Structure formats: C-alpha cells, structure tokens
C-alpha cells in the first residue's frame, strides 16, 4: 500500500492551523478554478462535505453550485468545529442569517456521513499520512459519491528550495506528494476512475518582504530537519537579498497545484474473503437496485 514518501512534522502543521482562521488568497483562487471543474460532473449531490472549510475558501462557491444541497463543514477536531460555528454566527437582523445555515462536524464525526460529494481544497499536503486521509474520505462518502480535491505538488516553491540548497540553509519545506502517487492512493483506498491533473501558478511580488509575508499565510516549514529555533536578523537580511538577486524588481515563486477526483463504487466481494459494508452504503445499494431501468 502506498505510504507518504516524505518526512513531515505534524506539530508544525498544527501551529499553522492555530495561526489564523481566514483562507489564504491562493486557496480561494484554487477553489475558484476547481469549482469550474464541477461542470463535468452530472451528479447533483444532496449532501456536500467541505473538508477543513475554515481554510478552504470554498463555502460560497459550493452554495452557489448546489443551492439545494445540505452543506456540511468538516474541521480537524471538535475545538476547530466549535470555532467554525462561532465564526458563522450573525446578528438576527442580518438577512444572511435568515437562510439555511451550513452544519459543521469534526473529522471523526464525518465517518459514515453518507455524502455524495466530498470537497477538499488545499488540504491533503497538510497530512502526515495522505493515504490514511484518503481512506477517511472514502468512509465519509456514500456509494456513487465522489471526491474532488486539490493540494500542493512537489514542484511548489522550487525557486526557494533551490536557493536554500545553494546556500546551505537546510530544507525550505516538506516534499509534497506526486500526483501519480496520489492516484495510486485513491485506488488502494477503494475509489474508482481517479482522474489527476496539475497546473503551475507563479506568484510575483515587488519585494522579498511582501513575498515572505504572504508565504506565512500559506503555511509553515513542516520538514523535521528544518533549522531548529529562530534565525537571526542577519540571516533574514541575507535571505531577502538572495531572493532579490535574480531580478531586483520582481520576486517570483512557483506553486504546483494538483487536482484530483474519483468515485466511490459499490463494494465488491472477494472470493474467500470478507467485505464490510456500512449500513448507509447498504441502503444506497438497495435503493439503486430498485430503480426502474
């Protein structure tokens, strides 16, 4: 079974999660691009899970795409779920409160949710074990449901990685998983017909200070062999000079965005083996078999 090929520090990922509640600009832009891909899916889900909704930047897009669906935000744990719910509260006199409000669940509560769509925008690269998270997505979906996700790929921040390597600064960040390995993880988790794609987005800034400020909103260095402790102001000044050296008027950093979607088919019995089917999946299979043909 595929495993994560990279060293990863979950504590650094958790520190980024606690650092704020607003989705970064790049997350919202990737969500917009991923939402355009929903047009190729004919299914109209009745229950939609927005995985790690508070950082997804996707809520409004999903509400617009599926206005009749039950939309459920999924957060990493109960504390994050409660914080998301608190952030959604609006005064009673605002018209936005009169409509249907999304529900929220923790990841553990989402097991067996029976959703027809699991949407996970810019989440998977924050997992120490992406394969285990994909298996969790499979459990949260109903039979014939599908997942659509995006994450960072291995070509992300190649300029910064090369700079760190050239000057002996240590790893600039964790190595991200290749899209072909993610496709294998989907198959091993039980998904059918996985489709993987990628694109590169290059962001530019006028100064290295502006680049570093935005990079901090996008995450943390989650490589266990990163520099321990705080760097000195002298080191930071040298880093910014190195970032500006190729083009004093423009700092550019590339982001590889990986997209994927796959369907959860009906479980297949294996001769001489055992197949476990949830009650929700069994009900879905029975309803499908009773449809007129």
Note down, in words, how this protein is organized.
The chain has twelve helices and seven strands. Helix content is 39%, strand content 22%. Mean pLDDT is 86; it is low at 270-275 and 285-293. The protein has 293 residues and is of the alpha/beta class. It is globular. The two termini are 38 Å apart. The chain has a seven-stranded mixed β-sheet with strand order 3-2-1-4-5-7-6, with helices on both faces. It has a domain at 10-154 and 177-199 and 257-266 and 276-290: Rossmann fold (3-Layer(aba) Sandwich). Helix 5 (78-88) links the parallel strand 2 and strand 3 (103-106).
CATH second-level architecture of one domain: 3-Layer(aba) Sandwich
Low-confidence stretches: 270-275, 285-293
Inertia-based shape = globular
Q: Please, what is the CATH homologous superfamily of one domain?
A: Vaccinia Virus protein VP39
Distance between the termini: 38 Å
CATH fold label of one domain: Rossmann fold
The helix content is 25-40%
The SSE string, one letter per element, is HHEHHEHEHEHEHHEHHEH
Q: Sheet with the most strands? A: 7 strands, mixed
Order of the strands making up the biggest sheet: 3-2-1-4-5-7-6
- Radius of gyration from the CA trace? 21 Å
Number of discrete helical segments: 12
Quickly list its features.
293 residues, alpha/beta, Rossmann fold, 7-stranded mixed sheet, 12 helices, 7 strands, 39% helix, disordered C terminus, methyltransferase activity, Malonyl-ACP_OMT, methyltransferase
Summarize the structure.
This protein has 293 residues and is α/β, with parallel strands linked by helices. The chain has 12 helices and 7 strands.
């Amino acid at each position: 079974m595929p495993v994560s090929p990279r060293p990863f520090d979950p504590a650094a990922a958790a520190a980024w999660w606690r650092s704020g509640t607003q989705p970064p600009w790049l997350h919202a832009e990737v969500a917009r691009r991923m939402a355009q891909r929903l047009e190729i899916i004919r299914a109209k889900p009745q229950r939609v899970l927005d995985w790690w909704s508070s950082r997804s930047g996707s809520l409004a897009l999903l509400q617009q795409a599926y206005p009749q669906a039950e939309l459920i935000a999924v957060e990493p744990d109960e504390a994050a779920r409660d914080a998301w719910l608190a952030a959604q509260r609006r005064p009673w006199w605002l018209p936005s409160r009169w409509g249907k409000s999304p529900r929220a669940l923790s990841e553990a509560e989402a097991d067996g949710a029976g959703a027809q769509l699991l949407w996970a925008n810019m989440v998977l690269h924050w997992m120490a074990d992406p394969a285990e998270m994909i298996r969790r997505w499979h459990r949260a979906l109903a039979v014939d449901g599908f997942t659509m996700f995006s994450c960072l790929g291995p070509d992300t921040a190649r300029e910064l990685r090369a700079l760190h390597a050239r000057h002996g600064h240590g790893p600039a960040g964790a190595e991200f998983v290749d899209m072909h390995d993610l496709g294998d993880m989907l198959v091993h988790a039980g998904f059918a017909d996985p489709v993987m794609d990628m694109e590169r987005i290059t962001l530019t800034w006028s100064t290295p200070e502006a680049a570093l400020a935005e990079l901090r909103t996008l995450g943390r260095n989650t490589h266990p062999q990163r520099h321990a402790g705080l760097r000195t102001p002298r080191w930071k000044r040298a880093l910014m000079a190195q970032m500006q050296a190729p083009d004093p008027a423009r700092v550019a950093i590339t982001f590889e965005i990986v997209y994927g979607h796959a369907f959860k088919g009906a479980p297949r019995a294996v001769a001489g083996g055992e197949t476990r089917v949830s009650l929700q999946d069994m009900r879905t299979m029975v309803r499908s078999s009773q449809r007129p043909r």
